[in-house]
Amino acid sequence: MIIAEQKPMETIEEFIKDYKKVLFLGCAGCVTVCLAGGEKETDLLATSLRMKRELEGNPLETVTYTATRQCDPEYVDGIANYVEDVDCVVSLACGVGVQFVAEKYRNKIVFPALNTKFAGGTVEHGVWEERCGLCGDCILHKTGGICPIIRCSKSILNGPCGGSQDGVCEISKDVPCAWHLIVEHMKELGRLDMLMEVQPPKDWSTSRDGGPRKVVREDVKIDE
Amino acid sequence: MSKSKIERLFDQGEFVVSCEIGPPKSTDAEVIREYARMLKNHVDAANLTDCQTAIVRISSIASAWHCLEEGLEPIIQMTCRDRNRIAMQSDLLGAYSMGIRNILCLSGDHQKFGNHPTAKNVHDLDSMQLVNMVKRMKDEEEFCCGEKFKNHAPKDFFVGAVANPFADPFEWRVARLEKKIAAGARFIQTQCIFDTDRFVKFMDMVKERGLHKKCKIMAGVTPIKALGAAKYMKNNVAGITVPDELITRLEAANKAGGKDAVREEGIQICIEQIKMFKEIEGVAGVHIMAIAWEELVPRLVEESGLYPRPALKE
């Protein structure tokens, strides 16, 4: 899933300081799972800011709603009556959701309440880790199911580099060396031979190569 | 243009000596030229580092040109951190056109350690792929994309890479060296060796696989300047191991004669190591990394019995 975290409260407060009525728009997708922008966080954020503004003598009227997914037009279309009525929108979705909302409601400014971080998963309650570089050309079968593109700090395809010691990456003692993990795992599988092949330069054209990517499934498209 | 001097010296069977010059963090090329004049009779070639530890300095290629002008053979380092394959090949063509023949391919220190930790790194290629790209440019006369050179391919590049016997997983280090040789590395410079036992073990594994016959392995040495530096390297530098015996020797020197005695002991240890490596089968040369202590190199070379340097035969 997409992992995000909330921007500092002061930043969001600054965004909306000149607005009187604000829609706080949560998302029930990934950001709910990573506890950054679900219904609970949305209500908490709106309430906190409302109380703060009240104390400052600059009352804020808040509207809260949590869309099923802000990255889906079907659900973004459904919030028209909430958006219509406010001065601006604070979206607690990932960067995709913010863009979908801003694109649909062009007469309202949309502020992002979150910083969208990466594609990752929950490793323990309250801890999320990046696991995929979204490069568009998966090679996990060659590397024991461990992604060197994103988990190696130098994206080495023929690792490990000289900075790996005691299984730890040179950039931090808290970062495991992805290639150490790969070598150990391939050893367990009895397939170290697979790592001896020199991996050629990667085709980055499927990754961020200067333009937005698109996936089209002709079979599920609905012709107008 | 001819082949590189160190390639020819290796072919002659000489024990090759190289050292490292760190380019300045300014436009002052005179720093490099002075080192070049000082070192050219004592070493066969010098590495010009490529923004080492991710700190902006005069580029390795520009620095190499200053060395060439002063009559010192350069080895340009090229890291994968800062350029994509287009920029790398372009720089390689430029370097070759200036007479630079030796290239050492490495991934590069992470930008986190340098003076621009917020920079975006590139890593389009890894060091293995860079080695292979240069090999293809020289041997197959083609660019990374497969397009052939119409003329003037960089046929005489001498391609080097690094190996670190002190990083983990240890056993895999030799396998990775084998891969680098398969990718096209013709000479290897190792990380600074302090743990000689582990290096000997590494070389045994290298010889078991016959890798020393497929490429020239140069043992990396660094003279220790201060007790604090040794301790720092032991505890804080990834990929470098400093054995306790070495710390004990430096501590004894410190007790006996303070800082100066430590420096002298560091020099003696380095000389002992060079002499030892010269006798290890499969070690074809020594690479002296006297970090910010370049002026020591002539003494190290002389006192380890490696001076004068051999001449090229016709």
UniProtKB/TrEMBL annotation, chain A:
<feature type="compositionally biased region" description="Basic and acidic residues">
    <location>
        <begin position="210"/>
        <end position="224"/>
    </location>
</feature>
<feature type="domain" description="Methylene-tetrahydrofolate reductase C-terminal-like">
    <location>
        <begin position="111"/>
        <end position="205"/>
    </location>
</feature>
<feature type="region of interest" description="Disordered">
    <location>
        <begin position="201"/>
        <end position="224"/>
    </location>
</feature>
<protein>
    <recommendedName>
        <fullName>Methylene-tetrahydrofolate reductase C-terminal-like domain-containing protein</fullName>
    </recommendedName>
</protein>
<dbReference type="InterPro" id="IPR022026">
    <property type="entry name" value="DUF5981"/>
</dbReference>
<dbReference type="Pfam" id="PF12225">
    <property type="entry name" value="DUF5981"/>
</dbReference>
UniProtKB/TrEMBL annotation, chain B:
<comment type="similarity">
    <text>Belongs to the methylenetetrahydrofolate reductase family.</text>
</comment>
<dbReference type="Pfam" id="PF02219">
    <property type="entry name" value="MTHFR"/>
</dbReference>
<comment type="pathway">
    <text>One-carbon metabolism; tetrahydrofolate interconversion.</text>
</comment>
<keyword id="KW-0560">Oxidoreductase</keyword>
<dbReference type="GO" id="GO:0009086">
    <property type="term" value="P:methionine biosynthetic process"/>
</dbReference>
<protein>
    <recommendedName>
        <fullName>Methylenetetrahydrofolate reductase</fullName>
    </recommendedName>
</protein>
<keyword id="KW-0285">Flavoprotein</keyword>
<dbReference type="InterPro" id="IPR003171">
    <property type="entry name" value="Mehydrof_redctse-like"/>
</dbReference>
<keyword id="KW-0274">FAD</keyword>
<dbReference type="InterPro" id="IPR029041">
    <property type="entry name" value="FAD-linked_oxidoreductase-like"/>
</dbReference>
<dbReference type="GO" id="GO:0106312">
    <property type="term" value="F:methylenetetrahydrofolate reductase (NADH) activity"/>
</dbReference>
<dbReference type="GO" id="GO:0071949">
    <property type="term" value="F:FAD binding"/>
</dbReference>
<dbReference type="GO" id="GO:0035999">
    <property type="term" value="P:tetrahydrofolate interconversion"/>
</dbReference>
<dbReference type="GO" id="GO:0005829">
    <property type="term" value="C:cytosol"/>
</dbReference>
